[in-house]
Amino acid sequence: MDNFNNSIGISKDILMKVLKPGDTAVDCTAGNGNDTDFLCEIVKDKGRVYAFDIQEKALLSTKRKLEASGNIKIVKLIKDGHENLDKYIRENIKAAVFNLGYLPGESHIITTKSETTLEAVKKLLKLLYRNGVIIINIYHGHEEGRVEKEALYKLCSKLNQRKYNVFKAQFINQVNCPPELLVIERRV
């Protein structure tokens, strides 16, 4: 059960099952580059990863990580909000991942926002291949995180069950608002 000690481990397990070399994936919140680099390792040289962040510091951290791993050539780093992803992505995608909240180790003032996250999810739903997934790690231990969580649950509960499966996972024995995980899978 080591892979299930947090929502990130579960997310990675799902991504490894869904993504294949040559696929296109999106990291909607590049942060420190961990998910971006992980996506690159799966899609390999023939694949493509788009990584979004609004903070220059996050993109520089991600770039350094990708240069160190040799994955920089697979990624398009984009300094823009994920709600604008349709300006950059023209092809269908197999997976997208969000780690909502704020940049780890940085100011808690700059956070993801429910309005922009909802807009990004709606746009991703249109780009998602059949059996593709959108993985959302929700950090709700701050006010905007709680608002974002409720807005995402509302949106996801209304998705047509013939077109999408929506899976929710949460830890019930951990303190301090552990992250919750939403996975949206396109069925048809």
Short description:
InterPro entries: MnmM_MeTrfase, SAM-dependent_MTases_sf. The chain has 188 residues and is an alpha/beta fold.
Characterization of the model:
There is one protein chain. This protein is α/β, with parallel strands linked by helices. The protein has one domain (2-186): Rossmann fold. Helices cover 35% and strands 24% of the residues. It has a 7-stranded mixed β-sheet with strand order 3-2-1-4-5-7-6, with helices on both faces. Keywords: Methyltransferase, Transferase. Pfam families: rRNA_methylase.
Helix and strand topology:
Layout: H1 7-18, E1 24-27, H2 34-43, E2 48-53, H3 56-69, E3 75-79, E4 93-99, H4 114-127, E5 128-138, H5 143-157, E6 164-169, E7 180-186
- What is the string of helix and strand elements? HEHEHEEHEHEE
Structural class: alpha/beta
Calculate the terminal CA-CA distance, rounded to whole Å.
31 Å
CATH architecture: 3-Layer(aba) Sandwich
**% residues in beta strands:** 15-25%
Mean pLDDT: 90
DSSP E strands, number: 7
Which strand order spans the largest sheet, edge to edge or round the barrel? 3-2-1-4-5-7-6
The global form is globular
- CATH topology name, in short, is Rossmann fold
Helix content: 25-40%
Main beta sheet: 7 strands, mixed
List key phrases describing it.
globular; seven-stranded mixed sheet; alpha/beta
